Amino acid sequence: MTFDLEAGERLTAWLRARVGDADDVRVEGVDRVDFGHSAEMMVLTVVIVRDGRDICRDVVLRLRPKPPALLEPYDLPRQFTILRALEITRVRAPRALWLEDTGEVLGRPFLVMERVAGEVYEMESPAGVSDDTVARMCRSMVEQLAAIHSVDLAATGLQDLDDGSDHLVRELDHWSAEMDRVKRGNLPALERLRRGLRETMPEPSPRITLVHGDAKLATSPSPTAPSARSSIGR
């Protein structure tokens, strides 16, 4: 989207209403994030003025992509709910601050979450990163996936999202539909794979867990940028 002066004024007014007890609120340093593929994101600073003092909060604004998004159905309120629930868990995730789900402010729904400092390796690690650092990154990724799978659904209230009973069927249906949507010709190998996956689909696990549908080092396996495919599964 084009973030012009009018959009900035609408966003500032909306944030002012969310903060409530501030003398004033202004937005500074808006910058578009130029990596990632499933959502449009901007980093900015929300300046909250109280008693003559400026309190600065660095945040990320995650905007719902224009339909059809890469990962449909794209449920931004669901992402917000999961992020809020993870605050009491061992999963490392930014705090979800505010949700605008009508699209009236910026033309599309968005959420605002705290900005967590760090480096993002989108395609490959930069020169100078040691093998030990890469190994620690991989271990951390596995640890965070385990933490996600260990989330207590009852304690976090996430058991109300889904019972997870048809998770595998939904995943196969989703990716089959995506394949049909983008293919430009016959794909015999993928058709054989699709049939094979359905024919050999395992029985659902008796245990229901929170799963991350797009885990990779580029965004980390915790919902630092919450996955559109985060769901409850068996």
The CATH superfamily of the largest domain is: Phosphorylase Kinase, domain 1
Mean pLDDT: 84
- C-alpha Rg, in Å? 20 Å
Percentage of residues assigned to helices: 25-40%
Largest sheet: 5 strands, antiparallel
Give the C-level CATH assignment of the largest domain. Answer: Alpha Beta
Q: Which stretches of 5+ consecutive residues score pLDDT under 50?
A: 220-230
The secondary structure category is: alpha+beta
Strand fraction: 15-25%
Give the CATH topology of the largest domain: Phosphorylase Kinase, domain 1
Outline, from the CA principal axes?
A: globular
Which helices and strands occur, and which strands form pairs?
Elements: H1 5-19, E1 24-32, E2 40-50, E3 53-63, H2 76-85, E4 96-100, E5 110-114, H3 131-149, H4 153-156, H5 167-182, H6 188-199, E6 209-211, E7 231-233
Antiparallel strand pairs: 1-2, 2-3, 3-5, 4-5, 6-7
